Amino acid sequence: MKVNKFQNDLNFKNISLLSKPLGMFYNPNAIIPTLIIETGVTSGRAYSANKKSGKIEASERIVEQGTSAVVWLWGVQMLKKLGEKIGKKVLKRDDFDFDLGFDYLRNPLESVDKSALKFKTANLFLSTVIATLFIGFGLPKINHFITKNKLKKQKQNNNEAIVNNQKNITFDEFKDRIKGISFTSRLYNFANIIENNSTARLLTTDIGVVSGRFLNARSESERVENPFRDIASIYFYLFSTQHTVNFLNKLTSNTDINPKVLDVTVEMLKKRLEKSNLTDKYNFLNKAIGRAELSDLRRIDEMFKDKKSVTLDEFKKVFSKYDIKADLMAKLQPELAGEFVLSKTQAEDIVKSGWISDAGFLHDVMERVTDGAYKQKNRFISAKRVDKIRKSIEEFILQIEKKAQKKNCTIDSTFVENVAKSNIRKNFIFYVLGTTISIYALGFLIPKIQYMIRRKLTNSDEFVGVKENSK
Q1: Residue ranges of the alpha helices (H) in 182-219?
Q2: DSSP category for residue 52
Q3: What pLDDT, on the 0 to 100 scale, is given for residue 195?
Q4: Is the domain of 206 the same as that of 260?
């Protein structure tokens, strides 16, 4: 049965000019948010190093952070593509265009040749290992070599200057010169996350980075400083921004909703409201979210008691009166092992009468937020992600209703659009603020604590690279 989408044209304008830049924060594989953080961190750590111990350490921080960022953001992907090119020639095949993850609703791997599956998995892990070894073990050696040669060259230049000047210098002048110098399913899902999530690639390489920098440390102080810095950084790289956004959204009764999902939801609500002509604001909640018979919900609870999904045929045997809606809802994902399946959330939406449980509307949402990948058998969109999207829509409906009650006004198209614009503005501010907090912690706060540790262990701010090469 063909899915009749709620909207005929998905190429409508964004609600706000901030929709597109905000959307980057909701894309797990987006480069720009991570690049912004890395640029801030590199600048902050270089500044902190230069301020505390000089240009030599600042130079190491720039090389270390800058190169690591390039490898984190692009290195694994480039190595993966190179491996696939080699695989195409060696294995004489060209069928690596599939996602590795799967769950109880989707499985892109069921029709994939086993040799292609094994090769892609091995290639991805090998690419990650190579990148990790380079950052953890190769890059520190390169940095140490650069530092050693810089100090050697500076020492030669200073010696030549002393000979040419033929004069003695005071102890204070000597200190100033020195200061100037001294600056299986789980396996496949894990592989899929590495391939399609930039922050996951960063976390994975960090494991090797911490080990490598610990083993390559040039002193006991550095052996403590580096693990502290790298381990403490993981939280602020991967989690702090989202935690900040969640806290601020809860504090302001706002909804953390993908702007693409919001665009489709607002267009749907505006069309529904124009036809419904609601005069009582309290009718909005019943119309938008809808209700289900208690007996239907109980039967769904029983049906999903020991399982996370049921086949379409199993559902229709119990709920024959919802045949048409069930057929449409099941097509939110491709067939699994030759049968269409449903999640519990989807089953509940089938028996509800709300606008947001309309199958055509949900297809529009998935079309927009996944750029059409939701209906492709070789692509993996996790059930967890789908449920999160569905939950965010309901939370936005509740947000509209709550604001209407607070202002004691009728909900119409203009009111819905104003709430949506406010939502986008707040989320943009929250994500920018969360990113700024991460940059501050990574670029300034953690280095500050790191130098406190160094002073505690060595009674000096002097950089070990300078100290080691001055012996």
Answers
A1: 185-196, 198-215
A2: H
A3: 65
A4: no
Q: What pLDDT digit, counting tens, does each position of 262-318 carry?
A: 999 999 999 998 887 665 555 888 889 988 899 999 999 999 998 899 999 999 999
Could you give the C-alpha distances from 267 to 6, 196, 277, 356, in angstroms and in order?
Answer: 10, 30, 15, 12
Per the listing, tokens 């045997």 go with 317
Residues 173, 78, single domain; the answer is: yes
User: Helices (DSSP H) in 370-410: which residue ranges?
Assistant: 383-407
Integer Cα distance of 171 and 437 in angstroms: 43
- In this structure, what token pair is assigned to residue 411? 């909900």
Beta bridge partners of 336: 339
pLDDT, tens digit (0-9, with 9 covering 90-100), for 323-335: 999 999 999 999 9
Does residue 290 come out as left (phi exceeding 0), alpha (psi in the -120 to 50 range) or beta? left
Looking at the structure, tell me whether residues 55 and 190 fall in a common domain. Answer: yes
Helix (H, G, I), strand (E, B) or coil at 2: coil
Residue 350: its pLDDT value, please? 94
- 184 plus 79 within the same structural domain: yes
CA distance 165 to 9: 79
pLDDT digits (tens, 9 = 90+) for 167-191: 444 434 433 433 433 335 566 666 6
d(CA 46, CA 57): 8
Q: What is the largest CA-CA distance in the chain?
A: 102
Q: Structurally, how many domains does the chain consist of?
A: 2
Evaluate whether 436 touches 302 at the Cβ level (below 8 Å). Answer: no
Q: Is 111 helix (H, G, I), strand (E, B) or coil?
A: coil
Angle, CA of 13, 18 and 24, to the nearest 5°: 100
- Residue 23 in any domain: the answer is no
**What residues make up the domain containing 188?**
28-245+430-469
Range with lowest mean pLDDT among 102-116, 140-154, 447-461: 140-154
Q: What is the mean pLDDT of residues 246-266?
A: 95
Residue 284 parent element (H or E): helix 283-288
Length of the chain: 471
User: Given the DSSP bridges, would you call strands 341-343 and 309-311 parallel, antiparallel or unpaired?
Assistant: antiparallel
- Write the DSSP symbol of residue 342: E
Is there a domain that residue 6 lies in?
no
